[in-house]
Amino acid sequence: MFTAFLIMPAKTALRASFVVLLVLSTLTLGVSYATTALDDTTATVAAQRYADGSDEPIVEPRDNVTVVATDSNTWLGEETDDPRSKAELVAFDPDGSVLYYNDSHTRYWDVDPVPGTATTVEYAFSDHLSGSACPTDYDPAAYGVNESVWNEYEQARADTDACTLNGVERVNLTTGELTRVWSQVTPGKEASRHHDVDRINETHLAVADIYLDRVFVVNTDTGEMTWSWNASSDFPRSGGGPYPVDWTHVNDVEVLPDGRLMADLRNQDQVVFLDPTEPSDEALQENWTLGAEDDYDVLYEQHNPDYIPREQGGPAVVIGDSENNRVVEYQRTGDGWERTWTWQDARMQWARDADRLPNGHTLVADSNGDRVLEIDRSGDVVWSANIGFPYEVERLGTGDESAGGPSATSADIASSRGSGPLGALWVDVKGSLSGPVFSATQYILPEWMGFVEFGAVVLFALTALAWGATETWWVARRRFRRR
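Above: the chain's sequence. Below: its structure in token form.
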């Protein structure tokens, strides 16, 4: 066959090459669709099992309850046939069966265990509301800002006939008892969804306010905001995203054991540390800042940094380094930070959560990889579940986020970069394409279409264009010769 190919006329051989490339890319897409798109995701099965009251396992067993919160890739949260369109909160019992399931909100975000309980959690959610359900007038004072600042942010979203209800709910995963803890409506729907809230004490929460580019503390009994830090106090508006629509994309806040707050400024590629006993313009501890804007070797539009305290081998921070398609850990060294652990594989795409467990394993939410997974100290995947568009994964009984886990340095946790030469090659290829534009394509693609399938689409399109251009050139050349 190869010999026959060699003796073909040049045009015929080139056309045959085009056909082969088109067939290969089409087969890749067809096989992926047949083997993936037609299968239910774990979360879809979980919904069915929970509704039926079934106790049949659907994931491999683990030592404790595993809770997964998922995002949605639809603009207003409308459900479609794509599993990534439905936001879900699902909890798996230690035996792998479904303990709890809820899909009543537009988005689910951070999940935290409630201290002193076995199966009760608090989670952040967002609900998109149509214009008719939104306030006609907002009181800036209720949001702790002056009218000029409020108007600046609100007018930037004036063309959106929608608003967002952000809130926190507490649920007993065993009984299903649900309590609304706190909520707040913000104008618009893009960059208006608060991703994280962390409890300070019985009456106060720290909130990552993605809408107004700040972190604030609220008294849930009175609704009063008792403290806030505005990113504009310390960062130039010329950096980050477009001001004031999605300038910082502050997506995470964590209350540290010493009372400080750690917050994530995604669009500045930085994790910052704040002292809430100081006024806003003095709260930032600059010598603790991790990362620098556009220094993508360190962080690239990251999510969900988790703090590992000194008694566990820290200070260290475990982070979903999203646009770099990896999870990383940085250890505090003197007045700076050093990367001490990295994990990624060929499938990982836009990881947004990583929790270090007490046994040294790491629990990861791989958002565009459509899975949650557990990695052991050697870097091997020891547990996983296919979940459409996960945002957060939490293992109960292990402490809040990474507070109960050891640092990579103290526990000798191995880094890993792909599995074998081919896996490492895929990591390199994806690394060359990393960035928000590529992630945006993955955001809207159907669940069955991963990196390889996306490559097949690109190959098909380029081959078709090249073939068409070649045939056009041949025709034009023949006409020119006849003159």
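Residues 156 and 245 are 6 Å apart (CA to CA).
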